[in-house]
């Protein structure tokens, strides 16, 4: 460490850093029954080559105002989970079992099972885009290039709320202002290709929020953006949660994004949740070897380089490979021969409050 | 640093003229790269960072002469001889290109889907007529082993491989002609975390073994901290700060560098970054702001920033920075 770096005034940093633990704005205003609970959801893809079990029985909940993260590498089933909740799975996929329960808007209203209703029926269509909205990774393809941004947002609004064109236009302009698109009213007549990446992503968030959804599913919302624009979008999400009480299910592979925004985190590997916990538990006491390896294989901004990075050996197996025992065991450096490579995959085991892990190192059989 | 200079880029600019689609009259100029000067020494790993549209890739393309720059010189020092890349004849360019190779960002689009791994890696060797027949096959096998791929997969097509494996194929192709300088344009951006670590370790190993020099174009600053020796920060076609990784990350001097560093999400929920959220977007290179191009987004802006463009200069031993106020402002680096 150079002398100047030692002298750099760490204490002089702006206020708001809570050295003891989680920042105060987080998690403490979450209460009540979950808005969404996914129970034992399993999704299969039927392809010519065979059946792929993309999601194999996952459970998670999202409470009002909560930001829940789902992290995992490509192919782990995180996007399929989002599509199953939204009932926008491709034709080759089907929900094999499980429930997706959405709490009614009224306190004592009925609970609706999204997995059991007709995916293209009237109810599903009113919930999709209305109660639950979705933000995609690539805003270029999420907008139609032949309609103006304004018309597309207005279409969404008028599908879900009884408004005149004029009122819908005003609402759309207001929404664009709210997500920080400068001069929102004038932008209504732009086409998506006329906007920069950051503005396009904001416009998509405006469209998603225009129906005042209770839950927003964001699938890699900042992956295609520059860090400076990503910072703007993350701030925006936190502000919308604070101002409108929107809950988010955030799907990403970026651990930094998760650490900065989420209250609760699920780590997925090969269609299963392998570890769940509060953001503090996952980042400061990771129990699953996969979570540990993910965290350690990341280069850090504040860690000088030099040596080799820790590596998770091998690659995520292809969709048609079947692995006996724990699905992570071929890549795990802590595997117990005779335990991890045989039998069934380990079930989730509760460790401390809210912290669960599916790993024989922490279960009965391994000990 | 005692190693000799390998690449010497001086006052490099690439301006694109914008024409009206019917009248063909020139309606504007896009200054994608504007007066960039830097040197890279043998064995160094130098990062070129900046937001999309800042001119990183255009700079690389001009160096490779995949694009003719508007002004400037690019010199490559090879085996004690200095060659002016921009004045090179077609024949000279051929041997220069063998010495400068590229690894691309997207391992899905940079490999021809109709060619086998064998054909992809052998192609540069065939074009440059280096080896033939039995020797060619042996050389490809050696390259494949070097990047950690299984020789049994030589007759497969790219679609059969994962992103990380494809990137290994791209690396093997880049190494086929024994290059001296490797320009890696976002080589790990499209990869998952676990693959990213494997590829970075591989690039480092290959550098040690083959004495490679890297120009590493990146936007992920955590990767740059880990992998690079020096950094050049680019904004709207100009270098705004250059220095060693250590200096630039812990003691940045340009407000833009500070912003870039602060925007990186920290993977630690107990240490939330003190984000400096920039208003607005990257400067539009076809309509650059007057004075310092960063001034509309800068939190330290004052009158002279609006009308005078600052030059990249270093004072008192600190790293070169293009900021009028570099000596007066308190710019935050990365916490320990």
3D architecture notes:
The complex is a heterodimer of chains A (367) and B (336). Chain A has 367 residues and is an alpha/beta fold. Chain A has 12 helices and 12 strands. Chain A has helices spanning 3-7, 78-86, 122-127, 139-142, 149-160, 165-178, 184-187, 197-209, 227-244, 255-261, 279-284, 289-296; strands at 36-47, 50-62, 67-71, 93-102, 112-113, 132-135, 215-219, 247-252, 264-269, 272-278, 349-352, 355-357. In chain A, strand 9 (264-269) and strand 10 (272-278) form a beta hairpin. In chain B, strands 6-7-8-3-9-10 form a 6-stranded mixed sheet, sandwiched between helices. A 4-stranded antiparallel sheet of chain B has the order 2-1-4-5. In chain B, strand 4 and strand 5 (81-84) form a beta hairpin. The relative contact order of chain B is 0.13. Chain B contains 10 helices and 10 strands. In chain B, helix 3 (117-127) runs parallel beside helix 5 and helix 4 (133-146) crosses helix 5 (163-175). By secondary structure, chain B is an alpha/beta fold. Chain B is globular, with a radius of gyration of 21 Å. At the A-B interface, helix 8, helix 9, helix 10, helix 11 and helix 12 of A face helix 5, helix 6, helix 7, helix 8 and helix 9 of B.
């Amino acid at each position: 460490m150079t002398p100047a770096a030692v002298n750099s005034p760490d204490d002089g940093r702006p206020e708001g850093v809570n050295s003891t633990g989680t920042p105060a704005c987080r998690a403490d205003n979450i209460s009540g029954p979950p808005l969404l609970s996914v129970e034992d959801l399993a999704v299969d893809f039927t392809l010519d080559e065979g059946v792929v079990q993309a999601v194999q029985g996952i459970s998670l909940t999202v409470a009002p105002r909560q930001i829940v993260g789902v992290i995992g590498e490509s192919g782990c089933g995180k996007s399929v989970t989002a599509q199953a909740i939204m009932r926008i799975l491709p034709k080759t996929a089907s929900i094999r079992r499980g429930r997706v329960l959405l709490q009614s808007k009224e306190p004592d209203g009925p609970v609706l099972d999204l997995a059991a209703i007709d995916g293209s029926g009237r109810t599903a269509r009113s919930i999709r885009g209305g109660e639950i909205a979705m933000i995609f990774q690539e805003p270029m393809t999420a907008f139609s290039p032949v309609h103006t941004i304004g018309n597309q947002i207005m279409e969404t609004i008028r599908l879900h709320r009884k408004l005149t064109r004029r009122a819908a236009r005003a609402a759309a302009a207001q929404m664009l202002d709210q997500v920080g698109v400068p001069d929102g009213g004038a932008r209504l007549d732009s086409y998506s290709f006329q906007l920069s990446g950051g503005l396009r992503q904001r416009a998509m968030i405006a469209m998603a929020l225009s129906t005042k959804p209770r839950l927003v599913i964001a699938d890699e919302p900042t992956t295609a953006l520059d860090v400076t624009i990503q910072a703007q979008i993350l701030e925006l999400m936190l502000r919308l949660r604070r101002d409108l009480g929107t809950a988010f299910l955030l799907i990403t592979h970026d651990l930094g994004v998760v650490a900065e925004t989420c209250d609760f985190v699920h780590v997925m590997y090969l269609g299963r949740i392998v570890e769940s916990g509060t953001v503090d538990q996952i980042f400061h006491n990771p129990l699953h070897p996969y979570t540990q390896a993910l965290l350690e294989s990341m280069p850090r901004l504040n860690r000088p380089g030099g040596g080799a990075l820790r590596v998770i050996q091998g690659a995520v197996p292809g969709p048609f490979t079947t692995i006996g025992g724990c699905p992570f065991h071929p890549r795990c450096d802590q595997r117990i021969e005779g335990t991890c490579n045989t039998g069934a995959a380990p079930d989730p085991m509760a460790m401390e409050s809210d912290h669960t892990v599916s790993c024989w190192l922490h279960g009965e059989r391994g000990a | 640093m005692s190693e000799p200079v390998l690449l010497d880029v001086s006052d490099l600019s690439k301006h694109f003229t914008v024409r009206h689609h019917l009248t063909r009259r020139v309606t504007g100029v896009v200054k994608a790269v504007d007066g960039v000067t830097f040197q890279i020494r043998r064995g160094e790993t130098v990062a070129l960072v900046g937001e999309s549209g800042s001119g990183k890739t255009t700079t690389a393309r001009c160096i490779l002469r995949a694009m003719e720059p508007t002004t400037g010189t690019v010199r490559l020092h090879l085996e004690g001889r200095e060659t002016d890349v921009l004045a090179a004849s077609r024949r000279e360019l051929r041997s220069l290109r063998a010495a400068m190779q590229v690894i691309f960002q997207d391992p899905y689009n940079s490999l021809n889907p109709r060619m086998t791994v064998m054909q992809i890696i052998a192609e540069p060797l065939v074009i440059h007529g280096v080896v033939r027949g039995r020797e060619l096959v042996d050389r490809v096998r050696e390259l494949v082993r070097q990047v950690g791929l299984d020789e049994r997969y030589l007759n497969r097509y790219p679609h059969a491989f994962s992103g990380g494996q494809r990137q290994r194929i791209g690396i093997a192709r880049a190494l086929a002609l024994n290059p001296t300088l490797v320009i890696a344009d976002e080589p790990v951006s499209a990869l998952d975390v676990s693959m990213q670590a494997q590829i970075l370790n591989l690039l480092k190993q290959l550098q040690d073994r083959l004495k490679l020099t890297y120009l590493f174009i990146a936007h992920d600053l955590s990767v740059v901290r880990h992998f690079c020796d020096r950094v050049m920060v680019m904004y709207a076609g100009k270098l705004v700060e250059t220095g060693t990784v250590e200096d630039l990350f812990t003691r940045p001097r340009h407000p833009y560098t500070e912003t870039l560093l602060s925007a990186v999400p920290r993977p630690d929920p107990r240490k939330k970054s003190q984000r400096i959220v920039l208003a607005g977007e990257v400067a539009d290179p076809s309509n650059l702001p007057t004075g310092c191009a960063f001034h509309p987004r800068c939190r330290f802006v004052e009158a002279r920033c609006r009308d005078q463009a600052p030059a990249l200069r270093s004072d008192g031993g600190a790293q070169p920075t293009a900021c009028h106020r570099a000596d007066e402002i308190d710019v935050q680096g990365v916490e320990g």
